[in-house]
Specification:
52% helix; eight-stranded parallel beta barrel; alpha/beta
Length: 308
């Protein structure tokens, strides 16, 4: 399986240098990450929202080693929120954040991440939108869920992400489904050991459906993070059986993948949110996109051969 190999490469400084230096890389990266600055991304935001789509914005970057870098990440999100306020798009665009960017892995990282993410959540609420806390590797999740619970005391609309491949997630879903949370369910895109996560695709898919049923039958707001046509159909059927209206759940897909499907679901009346990342520190995000789906890797390899 190539996925684990690619995920291992995402942690390699040598591979980072090699891939970043390849002349073709930026042309391919642009498929998934359409800009480096807020100014770059504004036309994309306007185009997608004009087409009936909603967005969740991610300022990419994970290798935070100092409190100053964590503060800079916070400020980057605050700048994004200021621009969304100018565009009057607060109700159409939310933010996704990785707590590692806010200093979670540093000494005293739990408190530092909470202190940095809180003003972002406050500023988002002030323009009528919200923030979703992305899930990272399993060692970070207890801290993420604790921060999520703390933020929801004042900002109950704060969302979080759960990952179907982790054994713990079915219990997490039962807890969150009963709380009125906004919960995005994804398959998972980190290299996790067999002691904590399913390793086979069919096991992950079955877990995804079990967890999605729990979310649909619960009191929260499910966000279906998948490009898999079969899982999308299953989600629609589970929503119908649970008596959910079209505005009581949503689909989420990545920018650059299955764009026609984004528009199709929106045209059918579904809430369809496009996960749109931007920034200069794109390497880890890009490598996980390659690992998630062999077609993405083939696209990159073919581009390297034809353009390199």
């Amino acid at each position: 399986m190539l996925g684990p190999v690619i995920l291992a490469a995402s942690r390699s400084d040598r591979m980072r240098r090699l891939i970043s230096a390849a002349p073709v890389t930026k042309q391919v990266v642009d498929r998934f990450i359409p800009g480096e600055t807020v100014d770059d991304i504004v036309p994309i935001v306007e185009e997608l929202t004009a087409g009936g789509l909603e967005l969740t914005m991610d300022v990419v970057g994970e290798d935070i080693t100092t409190p100053e870098q964590a503060a800079a990440a916070r400020d980057a999100y605050l700048a994004l929120i200021d621009r969304l306020a100018e565009l009057e798009l607060g109700e159409r665009v939310e933010m996704s954040v990785k707590l590692s960017m806010f200093g979670q892995a540093l000494d005293g990282g739990h408190e530092l991440a909470l202190a940095n993410v809180r003003p972002v959540v406050e500023a988002a609420a002030a323009i009528g939108t919200t923030v979703t806390l992305d899930a990272e590797d399993h060692t970070t999740l207890d801290s993420m869920f604790a921060i999520h619970e703390e933020l929801r005391k004042n900002f109950p609309q704060t969302g979080c992400v759960i990952q179907a491949y982790l054994f713990r997630t079915e219990a997490d879903a039962r807890r969150l489904a009963a709380s009125g949370s906004r919960v995005r369910l994804v398959k998972g895109a980190y290299k996790e050991p067999a002691e904590v996560a399913y390793q086979q695709k069919h096991e992950i898919d079955k877990a995804y459906v079990r967890i999605l049923r729990t979310l649909m039958e619960g009191e929260g707001y499910p966000m279906i993070g998948s490009h898999d046509p079969r899982l999308i159909s299953i989600a629609q059927e589970l929503a119908r059986k649970a008596g959910r209206k079209l505005d009581e759940y949503e689909f989420q897909m990545l920018y650059g993948i299955r764009g026609d499907e984004h528009l199709r679901l929106a045209a059918e009346g579904h809430r369809m949110r496009v996960y749109t990342a931007y920034g200069t520190d794109w390497y880890g995000y890009f490598m996980r996109r390659l690992a998630e789906k062999p077609a993405n890797l083939r696209f990159f390899a073919r581009s390297m051969l034809t353009r390199g």
